[in-house]
Write a structure and sequence with these properties.
This protein has about 110 residues and is mainly alpha-helical. The protein has helices at about 1-30, 35-50, 55-65, 75-80, 85-105. Helix 1 crosses helix 5 (about 85-105).
Length: about 110
């Protein structure tokens, strides 16, 4: 019974992260006119995710939303604050973000790691 609850929570978490990662990627692609700026933006996101605690990264991600002229979506903001699995959320969000950017860029990889 407890596993079913966890599975449902995990699926909800992944669904929100996927939806918001895709939306954030589309906005970032529109905001950054050149690949170099987009690459620097992505590098800062991934670097800061690797060195910050989850609560610090949540604040940083909120600032990055503001930087590109958006507000962090309510469902995402609320879920990050209330959930204990924010590391999973951020990893899934960033994976979706990068995958969406790579797919939209048509194979022209903006990240040197790719």
């Amino acid at each position: 019974m407890e596993n079913q609850f966890y599975d449902q929570q995990y699926l909800k978490l992944c669904s929100i992260a996927d939806k918001e990662g895709r939306a954030f990627a589309r906005t970032a692609l529109e905001y950054f006119a050149d690949r170099e700026s987009l690459q620097m933006f992505l590098n800062s996101l991934f670097y800061n995710h690797s060195i910050m605690e989850s609560d610090q990264f949540a604040v940083y991600l909120g600032l990055m939303y503001e930087f590109i002229g958006q507000e962090m979506p309510d469902d995402m903001d609320c879920y990050i604050v209330m959930d204990q699995e924010s590391n999973i959320f951020f990893s899934y969000f960033l994976t979706t973000l990068l995958r969406t950017i790579l797919n939209q860029a048509g194979g022209d990889h903006p990240c040197p790691a790719m």
